[in-house]
Amino acid sequence: MNDELNMIISIAEEQMNKTIDHAQDELQKIRAGKANPQMVEGVKVDYYGVETPLSQVANVNTPDPQTIAIQPWEKAMIGPIETAIVNANLGFNPSNDGTFVRINVPTLTEERRIDLVKQAKAATEHCKVSIRNCRRDSNEDIKKLVKDGLAEDNAKDGEVSVQQLTDKFIAQMDETMEAKEKEILTV
Known about the structure:
- The chain has two domains: 2-29 and 109-185, Ribosome-recycling factor (Topoisomerase I, Chain A, domain 4), CATH 1.10.132; 37-104, Gyrase A, domain 2, CATH 3.30.1360.
- The protein is built from four helices and six strands; from the N terminus they run αββββαββαα.
- The chain has helices at 2-29, 78-87, 110-147, 152-185, and strands spanning 44-47, 50-53, 58-64, 67-72, 95-96, 101-104.
- Strand 5 and strand 6 (101-104) form a beta hairpin.
- Helix 1 packs parallel to helix 4 (152-185) and helix 3 (110-147) packs antiparallel against helix 4 (152-185).
- It is elongated, with a radius of gyration of 22 Å.
């Protein structure tokens, strides 16, 4: 029975880790005024009829803090890349010079910075809800083990362990959010 309890706790920890990783990826996509290749990471380009990630058809880099430069590996892909960026609704207006697609990242207004902080807080709160759901599911699994013969003391210890994991991951998410908020609001 204790092996099953340990398994429940380790599964909860693994799920909470995945939730944190996902949230950090989401927060990374929220721009903080500086150009970042990850801003266009989710863009899919029509590559001869196949939806392909932008990173697989072009080299994406940032030559300066206000510009994202995209160099397609095939010149014929410049048009489809521009179209894909516009269709992705990222708020960017791409331009090309025949060899590169350039995106000028405008500096953020105070109002836009506040909106981005709200967006980041919403993503963080969504992550916290997912962590709490992992805790709930784990506690339900522990209660099922009690019905199958697990000692009450062991069940309580298991629930305490799951709660400690929950507290740890929520604190980690709060720290990540604080850092992101600072990054966004820094002019």
